[in-house]
Structures are given as structure tokens and as C-alpha cells.
Amino acid sequence: MDYKLDNHFLELKADVDQTNRPRQVLEAFYSYVEPRVFADSKLLLSSESCAQLLGVSLEQFHSKDFEKFVTAQTKLGTQPYACLYGGHQFGHWAGQLGDGRAITFGQIKGSDQTYTIQYKGLGPTPFSRAGDGYAVLRSSIREYLMSEAMAHLGVPSTRALSLVLSGEFPMRDRYYNGNPKAEPGAIVCRVAPNFIRFGSFEIFAAREDLINLKILTDYTIEHYFPQIKVQTKSDYIRFFEEVVQRSLATLVHWQSIGFVHGVLNTDNMSISGETIDYGPYGFLDEYDPSWTPNTTDEQNRRYRYENQPNIVLWNLLKLANALYPLCEDAKAFETILNRFKLQYEQQMLQKNKLKLGLCKEAVEDESMVESLLDLMRESKADFTLFFRKLSELNQSQMTYESIREVFYTDSISEDLEVQWAVWLKAYQHRLSNQGVDDSSRQQQMKQHNPRFILRNYMLEEAIQKAEAGDYSLLTEFSDLIKTPYEDNPQADRWIVLKPESAGDSSLSCSS
Ligand code: AMP
Ligand code: MG
């Protein structure tokens, strides 16, 4: 395979200890490690569009060389390494975390920018703590499919190049009931411009290691925010502002398609604003803003759908605290953070208007969206199916009868039915005043209202089959995620309400 290396992360200082022994890594950015090589690994899925980012040709994509690459047998001009970071987990400072089951092989000059190549599941690193550094098939399937699904949905995300069976069977207590069992192991090759997290800055700030905090920040700006040239301290504020805008844009995307990350700890927030670390995530089925997919979070529901905006802001505040020593201008940070809520509301309103096909400004825009969401919640509407259904209706079809099939209830109160009739009439009135014909509006709306999403019950079905050696559903899903906004007849059987037998779609943090 042809590729140009661009290993600029190595400009940063390496740990002097080169063993995989668990430890606190001080005054360094990464530790060189010895990854496991799996003799019996097997490639299950690979992403052609992700390979294209790396400049891999179609011929190379199908070559033995590529297989060697994705099974982590190709060194990329450096000894592989695991990165240091810390983080706030569930609202509390957790100290050093770091790449416990991820190992970076190097950086490649891609078709548009330099990408970092990282494998998950190649064994222990200094950051593995009590973990073994391996990954199991079920969590790897979830990471692979959702990374690629999000990219095709247009949401900023780390990418996944491949899903590989390791050929080994790590022990996992899957249901946390004291019954560990051997599970098929797997490797995912992740691709992103960088894997730098909010927690990468927090760890240096927490250790009062201001020299390395500055080195990391200058490095990040130089390579990933090159429009900012650091000349004065106020340029660190510009950097922070840019991170806020990127995080905000990603958040608005999540909310608009009903995506709940599930573990928005500061170590799971990318400095580039990409969705990162796919664990117990989920899409809203029934529109219940208080839903969280993470069973570990069931009590407090910190990471529930409706709380994601507050949490992203909270995480940005932690990043601001970490960057503060570089410029010591609390007022400037505060001003930016204080604008967040209003900016979020404005951007969300614009996004919702696109979802509804409303192209003119009107004073009632906000109340129209709000009352719709209230009705959807009260009627237990399926978030995805509802918006897609609305995208398909002609103005003459705007009746309660046309939308009731996407509710998780057979009957709603008479009062609610009347409220729907009122809302639909007002909506239809707005549409008719716009002077846009139905078919162009429908086309435009469909681009903001996905038809095909990977619900947790679907992933669970694919996982169960794959664990039994049947990869047909994996392959089917890896195809369908490529056209989430299209009326693809191949997806028809999945465009239905979540079946009752599917349970509550939540998962634990288990890796
Ligand atoms: P996550 O919940 O995946 O974001 O991971 C939180 C922290 O736990 C990170 O430092 C991970 O590297 C670490 N971790 C998760 N799973 C494992 C594992 N199987 N072995 C070692 N470390 C792990
Ligand atoms: Mg993580």
C-alpha cells in the first residue's frame, strides 16, 4: 500500500519507560508500547469511504497489503504508542485515564489532511489500569458501525476503517452479575485527524505542569487550528472559542437526529469536535427527552438526551479551566461560555426549521417547534419515523390519521387529538404561505430527517448473529448506513417502530 507518513505527533515528548506496565506517566505525552500481533485474526468489514480519506485506491483496498494493514501488522514509521489523558467522569475528576485499550500506529497524509491511525484492542498499555487492553466483538461492532453511520449522516465523527476478529477470547462479565465468560475478541482500526481530548489538556493543568500544557496547546493549534497563529495570550481564547463552535455544531447535529452519546465525560470530548468513543450510545425511539441509553447512568441520568447541551457546556467549562493558566483572562472565557446557551437555542431552532421545511422567518417559529415536541412527547411519537413521515406528506394529507402510525400507543386522548389537528392546520397554513411546492419541500426535508438509523435492538440482533458466526446482518447494516437519507427499498424492513419484544435499548459502559 502506498501512503506518505506525517508523524508530527512525535514532535511531542515520549515517556522514557517503554514497558506496558501500568503506571502514572509524567512529563510526557505518550508511551511507546508493544502491541499484540494476532496470528489468527480475520477481517470482517472494511470501509471503502474511510480508506479513500487515506488515499487508498480501490485496487489497494482489495489487496493483501490492506488486510495486513487493518489487522495491525504494518508499522507506520514509528514504534506504536498509547497517549496520556485525564478526564472528568460522571462529574468527578478521575485523574489519569489515557489510552487503556487503544494504540496509535502513526499518522498518514490523506487525500485532504493528515490522519492518525489508531487500533482498539491490541492489549495492555501503561494506561490499562485494571483492564486487559482487549476489546470484544460486541463493542467493536457498535463502534465500527456507528462511526461510519454518523459520518454518512453528516455528523462530525471519528471514522472506522475496519472491524477484525482477533481470534482470541477475552473474559468479560457482560451482565455485571459475577459470571465472566470468554467472548470473541476484536480490533477496530480508527481514523481521525487526531485523538486529542479535553482531558488531554486537563491532565497537565491538574498536575500544574504548565510547560507541557502550553506545548500541547501550541501543537494542537499549529496542526489543527492553523488559522490561529499564536502570537499573544489572547490567541488561546480564540482557540477556545473555535473549540466551542465545533462542539456546538456537533451537539446540534446529535440533538437533531435524536442521538444520545451516553458517556459524555471530558475524556470522550474531541478537541476537534468529532463524536468519539462509541460505547453505550443510542438513538431515541419514543421521543422521551429524559431517556439515556446508559444503564450505569440510570439513577442520575446525567447523560440523558435533553441534558446533552448542559453537559457539553459543562465539559467546555472544564476545558476553559484547564486552558486558563495560559492566558489568565477569566472574563474572556466567561463571555464565550455565557453565549453558549443562546447560540445553541438559535442554531437548534434553525435546524428544526430545516427539519420542518420552514424556510421563512416568522414570530411563531419557536412556539411552533416547542408545541410540536410537546405533542410528540405526549403521544409517544417515534422521533425518527415522525419527522420522516412529516417529510413525506403532501399538504392535503396533514391530518392526525396520517401520522398516528408512528406513535408507540394505539390511542391518545381526545384532547390530544384536537391539539394535533390544530398544530397540523397551523403547519399546513405556514407551508402554503411559503409558496414552495410539496415535492421540493419534501426533498429538502428528507435531507435533514434520516430514514435509516441503527437502533440498539438492531445492533443487538447483528451482534447476536455475528457471535454465532453469521455476519450477514453486519454486512447488510454496513451497506444501509451509507444512504441514511435516501428512500432505499432495501432498508424497508427496518423502517418500523421498535418492536415491543426489543426491550428498553439501554446498555452498560462495559468494554
Ligand atoms: P471509555 O469508557 O471507553 O471511554 O474508557 C474509559 C477509560 O477506560 C479509558 O482510559 C480507556 O482506555 C479505559 N478502558 C476501557 N476499556 C478498557 C479495557 N478493556 N482495557 C483497558 N482499559 C480500558
Ligand atoms: Mg473514552
Please state the overall shape, judged from the principal axes of the Cα atoms: globular
Percentage of helical residues? Answer: 40-55%
Determine the number of helices (DSSP H or I, runs of at least 4 residues): 16
The total domain count is 3
* Average pLDDT reading: 97
Going by helix content, strand content and strand pairing, the class is alpha+beta
Give start-end ranges of low-pLDDT stretches: none
Major pleated sheet: 7 strands, antiparallel
Extended strand count = 15
Rg on CA atoms, Å: 23 Å
Which cofactors or ions or other ligands sit in this model?
adenosine monophosphate, magnesium ion
Portion in strands: 5-15%
